[in-house]
Amino acid sequence: MAKYRNQLPQLSGDFFITTGGVGTSLIFDEHIELPCFASFTVLKDEAGCQWMVNYLSTFASVAQKYNVGLILETATWRAHP
Question: Could you name the domain of life of the organism this protein comes from (predicted)?
Answer without folding.
Answer: Eukaryota
